[in-house]
Amino acid sequence: MAIRRTTMYSTGGKKLYAVRAADGTFKDIQTYERAHRADMAHKSAAEKATARKKAAKKKSPAKKAAKKAVRKAVRKATKKVARKRTAKKTVRRK
C-alpha cells in the first residue's frame, strides 16, 4: 500500500512531504522534489508484470534472423520473375 504523506511547506517556501509514525510523530520528512523523484524511480508491481510479459513476448535473435533471410529470399525471387516478365514484354513489341 502507498505511504500516506502530510504536505507542509518549509520556511523557505519549499513543499515538504512528512511521513508520520503510528504514534503521530514524524518518521521521515523529505522535500517534494526528492520524494517525487524516488516515487518515479520505483516501479509498481503492475509495471513489473507488464515488463516481464513484454520481455517474454520478444522474439529470439535467431528466429528474427531466420525470418529476415526468408523475407530476403522471397523478395529476390519476385524480383527475378518481374525482370523476366518485363524482358518478355519488350521482345514481343518488336
Note the run of SSEs as H and E.
EEEHHH
Shape: rod-shaped
| Rounded average pLDDT | 81
List the domain count as a whole number.
Answer: 2
* Beta-strand percentage range: 15-25%
Terminal residue distance: 82 Å
In words, what does this structure look like?
- The protein is an alpha+beta fold.
- The protein has 2 domains: 1-44; 57-94.
- The protein has 3 helices and 3 strands.
- Strands 1-2-3 form a 3-stranded antiparallel β-sheet.
- A hairpin with a 5-residue loop joins strand 2 (15-20) and strand 3 (26-31).
Task: Please give a handful of descriptors for the protein shown.
60% helix, 94 residues, 2 domains, alpha+beta, 3-stranded antiparallel beta sheet, 3 helices, single chain, 3 strands
Summarize the structure.
This protein has 94 residues and is of the alpha+beta class.
Give the topology, please.
Blueprint: E1 6-9, E2 15-20, E3 26-31, H1 32-41, H2 45-57, H3 61-93
Antiparallel strand pairs: 1-2, 2-3
